[in-house]
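Researcher: Good morning. I'm working through a list of sequences from a screen, and I'd like to move beyond sequence-only analysis. For each chain I'm collecting a predicted structure so we can compare shapes side by side. This is the next one on the list. No need for commentary yet; just the structure.
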Amino acid sequence: MSLDIWGKARGRRNLELGYRVPREQIPWYPTIDVEKCTGCRTCYEFCSHGTYEWDEERGMPVVKNPFNCIVGCSSCALQCPGEAIMFPPLSVLKQYRNQSHDAVWRLFPRDSRLHRRAMGAPGAG
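Model: Good morning. Structure tokens for this chain:
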């Protein structure tokens, strides 16, 4: 399934934002520093997207479903008392945003109403 850069299913909103990059191509997901992880379960309980699973044997979370992570979200890292969760810098997302916007520019001429709508311009509806 293709998702927009914020992790939402493709659809009208995706067209409005201009993002048509398959989620699996966007390297945005957490990594856990096992040396810092205290096993508090905060990230596991906080994330409602099923990114983490709990490893009972090791007593810590594992990133089992990395592409369930919402692109651009790093809220679980802010919740982690041991500062054990890391994400790539937000700057890595810029290339995907630029690719998506370039595709919109090619699909719709700049002066077209569809281009203005795809780019989110006011009054383009």
